[in-house]
Amino acid sequence: MDQVAAYAAYSADSPLAPFTLERRTPRPDDVAIDILYCGVCHSDLHFARDDWGMTRYPIVPGHEIIGRVSAVGTDVTGFQVGDMVGVGCMVDSCRECQPCRDGLEQLCLNGFTMTYGSDDRRDGLFTQGGYSGAIVVNEHFVLRLPRGLDPASAAPILCAGITTYSPLRQHGVGAGHKVGVIGLGGLGHMGVKLARALGAEVTVFTRSEAKVDEARRNGADHVVVSTDPAQMAAVAETFDFMLDTVPVQHDLNPYLAALKYDGTHILVGLIDPVEPAIQGANLIFKRRVLAGSLIGGIPETQELLDFCAEHDITCEVEMIDIADINEAYTRMQAGDVHYRFVIDMATLNAADQG
Predict the structure, then answer these.
(1) 346 to 77, 85, 128, 142, 343: CA distances (angstroms)
(2) Predicted TM-score of the model (pTM)
(3) Would the pLDDT of 354 be above 60?
(4) What is the full DSSP assignment across 6-71?
(5) FRET partner for 243 with CA separation of 20 to 30 A, picked from 15, 44, 123, 206?
(6) Residues 279, 321: one domain?
(7) Cα–Cα distance for residue pair 51/130, rounded to 1 Å
(8) What is the 8-class DSSP label of residue 350?
(9) Are residue 327 and residue 284 in the same domain, yes or no?
């Protein structure tokens, strides 16, 4: 076991603070990684604050990890020391059930092992995330960073990117389709870029007039201010797909009404009960579909990284020092980030010494 510097939440109501964790000695099929950058996801905040009632403390968040391979196990064939790699939301799954065999490890029938907050399948140790100097991960769950993709801004692709790319690919979004993206945060702005790159015509739905220009700068063909009844009425029954990135309860009915017949509304942000209730007529009378999607499997995530390199797609990020993580959480909760914080992990040693 190796001791590694990190930042952890010690309780639901305490700020994140320096922490020392132990990383396992690499197994024959493991890859050891020195972490260079780690994105800050809203899920990190939820976990740190125990908003979902499942957190065990101390917890080291972080599942948007970019780093350099420092060592490989004797059975590893796909990576070598010095490679630039990524680790996303998963570090293991059963790899035997049908979803796992289909490359859909996030849908593992036995539950995937989260990058942080899970018990390791083999040794029972508690997984800890990327707000740390290093991590050890099974080769199957390590992703290759393509040449030409900026490492820092690539980090959020491993969560925000795959969360929006996977449903677009699953539902066959492409040229000739009209896609509405609801919300323009970390997920939404990636959804705009990816849907455009897949050939779709993209409209951003936002509650704020102030985000109209932002949406266009991110590549939106059109912008609808959803609080304006006239604008919503003007786009009724015009969209093939809605990519709904909003993580809090909101009324789905106006967006369902904006779909054509056979249109699909895809939830990727909301995991709470839908409130207010969906009007069944909005689905039945136009044969519309309400769907959900959870991140993506390992093959699809590698496909996404390669796609982003090919199309020069990166996440818009704000770099921060690890010592500023609590301020970043405060700003993130207030919606004051465009569009993802990324921690420069080179600042970890300085923070630890300070």
Answers:
(1) 28, 17, 18, 21, 9
(2) 0.94
(3) no
(4) EEEB-STTS--EEEEEEEPPPPTTEEEEEEEEEEE-HHHHHHHTTTTS---SSB-----EEEEEEE
(5) 44
(6) no
(7) 20
(8) H
(9) no
